């Protein structure tokens, strides 16, 4: 699910354009990205750890927030 930051800082969910793959890497550390954030028409990719770390600050300015970190739990059940 994608999430859109509203003017009040709340985050609303919306359909994602495409699923992140193993080729998508975190801009902070290079790990597999599970979170895509669009800010000023630029895409930022984060692993679950760095996405949570920066979520509070980015939510106020993000145009969209797409979080697939729940896939980490699915992988553990397989």
UniProtKB/TrEMBL annotation:
Pfam families from the xrefs? DUF7455 (PF24254)
Pinpoint the DUF7455 domain residues: 20-72
Under InterPro entries, the record lists:
DUF7455 (IPR055878)
What is this protein called in UniProt? Answer: DUF7455 domain-containing protein
Q: Which organism is it from?
A: Cryobacterium sinapicolor
The uppermost taxa in this organism's lineage are: Bacteria, Bacillati, Actinomycetota, Actinomycetes, Micrococcales
């Amino acid at each position: 699910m994608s999430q859109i930051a509203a003017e009040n800082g709340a985050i609303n969910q919306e359909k994602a354009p495409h699923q992140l793959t193993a080729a998508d890497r975190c801009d902070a550390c290079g790990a597999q990205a599970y979170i895509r954030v669009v800010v000023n028409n630029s895409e930022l990719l984060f692993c679950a750890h760095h996405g949570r770390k920066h979520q509070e600050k980015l939510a106020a300015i993000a145009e969209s927030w797409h979080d697939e970190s729940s896939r980490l739990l699915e992988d553990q059940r397989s």
